[in-house]
Amino acid sequence: MAGIVIDMFLNLKESSVAGINARVDENVVFPIHRNANSARVLFGGCWNNSGRQIVRNSIVKASQNSSNRSDALKATRQRRPQNVEGDFFVDHTCIDCDTCRWMAPTIFSQVDEQAAVVKQPSCKEERVKALQALLSCPTSSIHTENAPLDILQVQKTFPIPINEQRFPGVYHCGYHSEKSYGGASYIIVHPEGNILIDSPRFTERLAHNIDMLGGARYMFLTHKDDVADHEKWSKRLKCTRILHEKDVEVSTADVEIKLGGSGPWSLGNDFELIHTPGHTEGCVSLLYKPLKILCAGDHLTIWGSELSIVEKFNRCSVPMQLNSVRKLLDEDFEWILPGHGRRVEFKDIKEKNSALEAFLASREQPQIQSS
């Protein structure tokens, strides 16, 4: 009886619990034994001298609460009034993760601290990007008024090439996960084995598409926040997971490769793993040397319109994270692919270092003054 909750009766006319039949209607009397203390806690209500408890009021109240919860859930899924009229819209469950805004910037924008549709797609390219954002939304907060008949074709576009001319073989996986707070994941196709960087939301459709790219030899997890469905992906793709030991938790205890110390570590000839602690103690960035790309996880990004370490989400040490940014002055890259926020592009290494030095100067000066 200890595990019985009143909600189990809400949608059933007849039920049987521990061999006791109960019919749920407006005059229900639920028979139980006098010593069923656990049931008293769960159901409450009045007891009569025969050891029978009338639960009508409890059922009515529970039913009302369930109805209220259902109504509240439906309300959050309603169209936000900030959306423009038309097919696409964002509901009230948006967590303002920014995904849709950088995936389809002409369609979505931030209005009152959540995303909203500010322009309906007017051509095929805009529609495809809007549907890609819909599929990638971690909270399924984007909808269409009419069933999108082309959704299956859009599913086939994932993973999405970052820039086929400049960065061949580098893809954005899409399908962001709420478990990773909407973080982006990437896959790099490489002759020595493909590398999946952080975990997207698991879907068989995406897994099939990754198979078509050659699968994945490794799943590199930048830090503990963005592991999402790593276990499902590991089993499905039979890939080896990599995570720094400082960020290993119960859910990642069976990760195959646990990095120790402060690195750097090599992954074949073309990839270097750089310990960039601060956001978390075990945060590690991946440098794809031939294409000069840094996959930085939550270490460094564009937030708003400026370089940022997004310190309001820091889980370890801001000074440590700033020191890790300074380490990047010695690294050769021109692009940053972050887990959150916008991608960063530099014209060359000189511009990269100038931008990092200016950022560090702006962040370190306030700390000196406050100390």
Task: Write a structural description.
With 371 residues, the chain is of the alpha+beta class. The chain folds into three domains: 6-76, no CATH class; 88-154, Alpha-Beta Plaits (2-Layer Sandwich), CATH 3.30.70; 158-370, 4-Layer Sandwich (Metallo-beta-lactamase, Chain A). Helix content is 27%, strand content 23%. It has nine helices and 24 strands. It has helices at residues 37-43, 56-76, 99-103, 124-136, 151-155, 204-212, 230-237, 318-327, 349-370, and strands at residues 14-17, 20-23, 29-31, 46-47, 52-54, 88-90, 108-111, 114-117, 142-144, 160-163, 167-172, 186-188, 195-197, 218-220, 240-244, 257-259, 265-267, 271-275, 284-288, 293-297, 301-303, 306-308, 335-338, 344-345. It has a seven-stranded mixed β-sheet, covered by helices on one side. The chain has a six-stranded mixed β-sheet with strand order 17-18-19-20-23-24, with no helix packed on it. Strands 3-5-4 form a three-stranded antiparallel β-sheet. A hairpin with a 3-residue loop joins β17 and β18 (271-275). The longest helix has 22 residues, at 349-370. The termini are far apart. 34% of the residues are buried. Mean pLDDT is 84; it is low at 1-60. This is Metallo-beta-lactamase domain-containing protein. It comes from Protea cynaroides. Residues 182-340 form the Metallo-beta-lactamase domain.
